[in-house]
Amino acid sequence: MTLNTRWIPERKQHFILNFLSKIFTDLPTPPNINYYWNLGSLLGFCLIIQLITGILLAMHYCPEITNSFDSITHIERNISSGHILRNLHTNSASLFFLCVYLHISRNIYHNTWKNQVTWTIGITIYITMIITGFVGYVLPWGQMSFWAATVITNLFSAIPYIGNSIVLWIWGSFSVSNPTLNRFYSLHYLFPFILTSLTIIHIIALHSENHSNPTGSQSEIDKLPFHQYFTTKDLQTTILLSIIIFFIITHTPHTFSDPENFIKANPLITPTHIQPEWYFLFAYSILRSIPNKLGGILALISSITILYLILLLKQEHIKSSNHRPNLKLTTWSLSITFILLTWIGSVPAESPYTILSLIITAWYFTSFIILIPLHSNTEKRIINKNIINNYQ
Amino acid sequence: MLRSKVKSIRNLTKYPRWYGLGVLAVGVGGVGACLLSGAFTLSASDILMKAPPLPWSHSGYYTAFDHASVRRGYQVYKQVCAACHSLQYIHYRNLVDVSHTEEEAKQEAAEILVAGDLDEEGNPTQRPGKLYDKLPAPYANDNVARSANNGALPPDLSYIVLARKRNEDYIFHLLTGYADPPAGDSVDDEMAYNLYFPGNKLAMPQQLFTNSVEYDDGTEATVSQMAKDVTVFLRWAAEPAHDDRKRIGFKGMIIMPLLWLVAFYMMKHKWSVMKSRKLAFLPAVRKKYTFAGYARKGPPIS
After folding, report:
1. What is the pLDDT of residues A114-160, one digit of tens each?
2. Does B238 sit within 8 Å of A247, measured CB to CB?
3. Considering chain A, what is the average pLDDT of its residues?
4. Domain that holds residue A63
5. Taking a C-beta distance cutoff of 8 angstroms, is the pair B141, B130 a contact?
6. CA B228 to chain centre
7. Which residues form the Cytochrome c domain (chain B) (predicted)?
8. Is B9 in CB contact (< 8 Å) with chain A?
9. Complex ipTM, two decimals?
């Protein structure tokens, strides 16, 4: 007996269309997800902007130390709408990172790391983004590009025994010079494609399980199809984000860039304050807060890789911070810690700030290692057990 | 029963009354401690004067450069600054329709001599400049520049406004901020004392004096007038696309919010049914209230 497939829509019969419809159109989605859940599509939008502008910029850019600064100048001054292209690429990188931080904060606040593959790949995407952003910042070959590259690559020299060899291997020379710029350019072209494939796996893994929602409760009882409801919502916020990006690139395009980077790289002159872009400042101040070089690097790496360890936490019955006051307090204090660390990273490493950054770094790690795991116990005292049972 | 349940969820957590106050006190105390610890530090850079912000006519979101000022600034650059400073990313063609007409820019370009093609015998030649030539550099290379300026290298001015903190304000105040060193401080003969330069000892002595330049348009050439004009000119040189950028921004900020309104309305329209639906909670599901029963007999009367 053959099945009558006449009334089954085309998109459900076709192999690829069925796959896509499960992700973008027919996907059952909880109706109560709020604007915090829009960041995923905004990140995808940022990635597409970066890919398009990046490929167009690569047509005019010259990865060679005597020409790279001039080629950026050429793009800004001589290429038709080149300044828009370049400002779009640099400024939407900032918004890309802003969205990533909000996206991660969503997961910590609402405890939505149910799907281990999605979470692990998500953090891997973030780390890949950091590397991509760093090597990309070196490409204009301004003063801050050069010295950021020098400082960050020199960190590897703290590795015992093989550190110095690794630094030489990364440089491809005896200092940050032409071979370094060439390989950074190559990596800056390669990594976005790794990022794209990781993103696709991230989305597939995400949609293979149930969506999370702000209440943190089961949502099988009430779902909406993704298309029409959430495509319109995502379109609306995407246009809103593009208005913000557009406003920045046409009104204040130099807000996020350092004045030093308008000066061509000079290995003989060190800038007074070397600092990365704002989105790396929190990690930079964690690095600086530890007096020991190797210790600082380990703190820097663990400040990001600690996000992997969140998976080891017990899955609570009540997930969202909306219903978990202690976790709510900790996540808010983590946000403030992040902002304070960003601020400390931008001030010179002087007397009050060094000890302050040490305290704030200690609080950052305490929140992750002690407070968040502890809250499943501390909250037992204040949450009414009977209500939990009814609430489920 | 439903009402009591909602109420009990609202009372999900029991906090002592002082909890919020305590958290607030700790937060305020922490931030206060941070601010105070910052207030009591004094560093060497505190002696440096920070350039105060000035009301530039082009600093608004939708204001273009004062192009008469750019033209005067070019004159100051050409007659004063160009003796030591290059402007390597500016071509004569950039001046066209910005500060000069095409004919005027061609005349400006024709005033200089640039290296031409080799002649038939292979000897280097010189020709008058064209629109596509760059503005001439005062020195052949950095070493010549250093030896002519007591070891100091005059920086290229193409990006100077954007490459310094406080941008235009800093450049204006640097040009007008020369003074005698305060008591207890002295400067060498080749150096000058400047209130706004980091370290205060600047290798460039004061360049702008009253009537250093005779303006084409008859503007009185005071020091602050020349400093303002050359700063506007250098701001233009740092970003020739400035006016275009703001014009595109103006158009976009009209069109894009309209686009957003359409998208927002579409979202509201699609969601309106879902947003106005009513959820009922039926606590006791007995057999006669099952969906089949509901369909057959109509809604139960409670």
Report:
1. 778 999 999 999 999 999 999 999 999 999 999 999 999 999 999 99
2. no
3. 90
4. 42-210+223-391
5. no
6. 17
7. 68-198
8. yes
9. 0.89
Interface test with B, best of A90, A236, A327 (most B CBs within 10 A): A236
- A48 vs B: CB within 8 A: no
- Rounded to whole angstroms, the Cα distance separating A297 from A281 reads 14
pLDDT, tens digit, for every residue of A76-111?
Answer: 999 999 999 999 999 999 999 999 999 999 999 988
Torsions phi, psi for A364 (to 5 deg): -55, -50
Strand B201-202 to B113-115 pairing:
unpaired
Residue A33 in domain = no
B116-143: buried (b, 16+ CB within 10 Å) or exposed (e) per residue? eeeeeeeeeeeeebebebbbbeebeeee
Alpha helices in chain B (DSSP H): 2-10, 18-39, 67-79, 102-110, 142-148, 167-176, 223-238, 242-275, 291-297
B154 secondary structure, DSSP code: P
- Do A235 and B270 make contact, defined as CB atoms within 8 angstroms? no
Q: Which of B254, B260, B239 is nearest to B62 (CA)?
A: B254
Residue A57: inside a domain: yes
Among the residue ranges A19-23, A28-32, B87-91, B156-160, the one predicted with the least confidence is A19-23
Q: Is residue A12 part of a domain?
A: no
* Count of domains for chain A: 1
CB < 8 Å to B241, chain A: 76-77, 83
Measured between CA atoms, how close is B264 to chain A, in angstroms? 6
Distance from the Cα of B121 to chain A's closest Cα (Å) equals: 32
Q: Do B245 and A350 lie within an 8 Å CB cutoff? A: no
Residue-wise pLDDT for A255-293, tens only, equals 999 999 999 999 999 998 889 999 999 999 999 999 999
d(CA B215, CA B78): 12
* CA-based nearest residue in chain A for residue B165: A259
Closest approach of chain B CAs to the CA of A90, in angstroms? 16
Contact predicate B186/B174, CB 8 Å: no
